[in-house]
Request: fold
Amino acid sequence: MKGRRSRLPRSVRIGFRDVPIAVRDFADQAEYGCYHVHEDRIEINAGLKASMRSLVTVHECLHAMFATAMPAVDDQTEEVIVRALTPQILGWIRDNPRLMALLADR
Reply:
């Protein structure tokens, strides 16, 4: 089960679209992930440990959400907001599994 949980899905549903997620080796190991706005896809560095991969995945998903919800926000402001919200949202998800199950119930 643990190995299965550590694999990211091939895509994530954000709003009305399915955004592809690719895990690949990055030439620059200081780069953790990237949301490519014009291609509407997320890339995650394959060299990350599971805990960092989770954080980076939430971070890049937030960028994808901004692209739809708030496209007029400048890049610097968006990055400040995304960096501030990422650990809060990930902690909220991890700390509230019953609520996540309830919210996911269609």
User: Anything to note?
Assistant: Helices lie at 2-6, 50-69, 75-95, 97-104. Residues 2-104 form a domain with the Zincin-like fold (CATH 3.30.2010). Confidence is low (pLDDT under 50) at residues 1-5.
